[in-house]
Amino acid sequence: MSVQPGEAGFDVPALRPQDWHRQQQQSAAARPVTRPPRAESAAAQLIAIANAADPGDRLGSKEELRAQCEVSVGTFNEAIRIAQSRGIISVRPGPGGGVFAAAQSLMVRLGNSVLALDAADTPVAEAVRIREALDPLLIEDALWHASPADIAELRELLADMLLAAQRLDPIAFIHANWSLHARIAAISPHAMLRSLYGSLLDQIESHTLAVLPASEEPLEEYIASRHALHAAIIDALERRDRDAALRLIAAHNTSNVLPGTPAPRGARSS
Q1: What is the pLDDT of residues 250-263, one digit of tens each?
Q2: Other beta carbons within 10 Å of 76
Q3: Among the four 62, 81, 181, 185, which has the fewest Cβ within 10 Å?
Q4: What span, in angstroms and rounded, lies between the C-alpha atoms of 3 and 56?
């Protein structure tokens, strides 16, 4: 006959650490999910605190701010993630760390887009400017050297842009856009040009926080128009229509890239 723990005069053994984690997961799965609304509310509190501070100011430790927001650890961590994704706060570990008001973003103009960068770093703005200047050279090379396989791959990347446009996801859209331009650059037979353009794209992409229309045009219409413009560029490349391709890339880069002043703090949360 088996003897159950407790019947033979000894206690039930404590759960092992891996069992604690499993038990917490099971308990969490059994509870209704109420985190998103409370996390958004806590994120709004964090954003308000950050907006009242100067860029780079320490707002407090995570525990101090969590207590101020009156939410659980899990909910607060989600709120931190939301505020960070909007470029409002930054988190630094270790002694002297905590939650800080993020440095104001540098806004730069890229064609009909505005990029919010994670630092007022002029080399990034210069990279944007140089990248635009190289686009016509790459279009010229693609007109001469693009194969049917190249065009097919460009259309696949256009499909990624369309999917992001349908989801109204501007970040995914601009990353797909950059992938398209990187693929156009890969067609060039000039190794130095390919390498330079790829390095510029990497630098810009790694520092971009947000992508906004440069006008008051609604986001849905703006993304749709940008997708249509890129589709027209690929069509022109396939037809070997030099005049149309160069005219379209000029429209693509319709504005000179101008390093802007840091965005007003309230604008960073939009």
Answers
A1: 988 754 433 333 33
A2: 23
A3: 81
A4: 63
